[in-house]
Structures are given as C-alpha cells and as structure tokens.
Amino acid sequence: MTADACFITDAEMPAGIDEVVAGRGLLAQACPVAALHCFDRVLTRSPGLAAAHAGRGQALLALRRPREALASFDAAIRSGADPESVAQGRWVGAMLLGAYATAWTVCDEVLARRRREDFNRRDQPFHLRHVWDGSSLDGRDVLVRCYHGLGDTIQFLRYLPMLRRRAASVTVQAVPALHGLLCRAPGIDRIVPLGYGLSDPPYGIDIEIMELPYAFRTTLDTIPSRLPYLHVGPCRRAATGQRSRAELRLKVGLAWAAGDWDPRRSIPLTAFAPLASIPGITFVNLQRGPAVAAMAKARPAVPFADGPASWSDDIEDTAAIILTLDLVITVDTMVAHLAGALGRPVWTLLHFAADWRWMIDRRDSPWYPTMRLFRQPAPGAWVPVIAAVADQLRAQQAGTT
Fold it and tell me: b vs e for 281-320, b when ≥16 Cβ sit within 10 Å of the residue's Cβ?
C-alpha cells in the first residue's frame, strides 16, 4: 500500500475523534500523506497547537521532507511542546540532511536536561550512569556495548582505534557471531559476549557503539572512512577458494531480505528475475536467516552458483565469501555494512523512507566510499530500482561504468 492509498477526506473523518490522535494513528499505519492532511487541517483551525505541529513534523519525516519537518518541530517548541518530546525527530531530520553538528546539539540539550534532573543518580542502571559524552577519558578503561543490530555494530567499529588512543583499554561486548571479525579489528583489548558479568563491571566509562559518532562530534568531513577496517583470517579466506584469473564472468553476491522488524527493506526474490537474464554473471547467495528457507521452497528467480550447503552463524564466513566477489548487491541489511567495511564494491537498495545514515538524494555514502545507493522513487516501488540495477550491470559488463 502506498501513502496515498490511506488518504481520507473531511467527510470520512469520524465525528468527535480528536484529529491529532487520528493523525498519529495514520502514521502508525504508515499513511504519512493522510496524516499530514490531518495535522494541516487541525493547524488551520488551531495554529498554536503544539501536538499538531509535532505530528506534522513526524509525517514530513516519513515523507522524507526533513527541512519542512525541522520547521514543524521548531514550531511545536514555540507553541509550548517539551523540547525533549521532539528531540528524536529533530535529530533524525538533521542527520538526514547531513547536518551532524545540529544533531549533536540536540543530544547535548537532552543530556544537559537529564543532568539537571539528576538523571545519573546512583540508583540508575549501570549503563545509564556512565555514558561517555566525549570528555577527557583520563586513561580510564572503556566498555563499548553493541546492543543494536549487526550492521550497526559493523558500521561503527571504525571508531574503536580513535577511542583506544584515548583510553587505557577498550572492551567490546558483542554477540558471539561477530567475535571472529572483532578478533582482527584494531582498537580492541578484550571481547566479551552480551550479558557477560555486568552486575557491577570494573569500567570507568561505558558507551553504546552507536553513540561514538556523537562522542567524537563527527561531521561529514570527519567520518573515519579509511577502508578496509575489517579483515578476514587467512584460514577462512583459504576455505572459500581463490578466484581464477581466467574466470571472465562477473561474480555478484545477492542478499534480498532484511529482518522481520522492518519488512519495507526486503524485496521478493522473484523481483530480481530481470538480473538473471543479463549474460556473463554468476550469482552467489549471501542471504542469511528465514529467507533462505523460503527460497528453497520455491523455484528461485535467480540461478545461484553452487556454494556452501549451509551457513555458519559466524559472520566471518560471509565476509570471506564477499572477498571473492566482484560486486555485492543487497538491501539495507548487515551484508551492506559488511561489504562496505571490507572495502568491496557494494550496491545497496533502499526503500523510500530509508534510515538516517543513508541521508536523502545521495547515490553515494560518506560512510562507505565503495558503496552506491539505489533508492525507491516512491513507497513500495521496487520495480524501477531493479531496472536501474539491471541497467548498471549491463553497463558494467560493457565496460562503460
């Protein structure tokens, strides 16, 4: 369903229902156009209603109109909204525009308020008492927590050498699937599993890995983008085999499904059928998780080359295979970050309201110099994305890119 499919008229709005609540409900149903109409209608009658300005900002963010969204959030604050209630929206809007300094100012404001309210009192959980804000470490030991997704962890591992230069030691707490790669990542003294011995850990500073860009006050010009910053052990590389110099076919890895928590990122495998008709390409399956089982139950739209019959939970196995490829084509998932961190050419396919890290209207990524972005022109529109990828593959085969 597209955003326009949710549009409702004044006559269709049930009488007596608060329109701000109705607008929020439309946002929850992924109907931002209808939600925007709802909030605009409220503001026509009540231009000083802070909740309507805030809701309008959220609808505009969903429509990827961040400049207008920021103006709405500012209007909400002027109309009496609690600044912290719109801080997340202001942060996302600034990050989409690449205005990182503005985003960090929003973080500073929130943290300053929490300090004033004694947010860091002793009865708070450990991870809320010791968050590092970029101030001097004074040679203390640092615990870096990797609580978010695998791709998030991979993206921000690049900061650990910078952190290690300022700390006495750096311990990384991450899921075991990443430990093989982390063993060769610079800037790490110790690796522990998530949940290991954290009742009262002996660390002077504690930070979530996604907070490191804020702590270092990153701008577009200072993103640590030297590649590769992840490496694969020689035994894993040997196990995947070496590419023959006589092999002329383009070897392309493919991942088409992301996690269930955001189905907008995934593409049906059948949608990739136009790529299979391009001559001179060998496709390699990089997909992990339930989508692999689903593929086995149906006739695949893309004829994958023979490869490992099963996949280990250790992501280093996937990394080793990526190193044998000419190109990776993937949706916004862990594979995109892994290929980028390994310095391999990667084309990332993005849904219309893609995450803040990919910004807006860019075909490249300042986070990964070897990455190219292909974006949906409208919500749900994967056909033109696949067509653009097919055109670029043909051009690459012809040697014109």
Answer: bebbbbbbeebeeebeeeeebbebeeeeeebeebbbbbbb
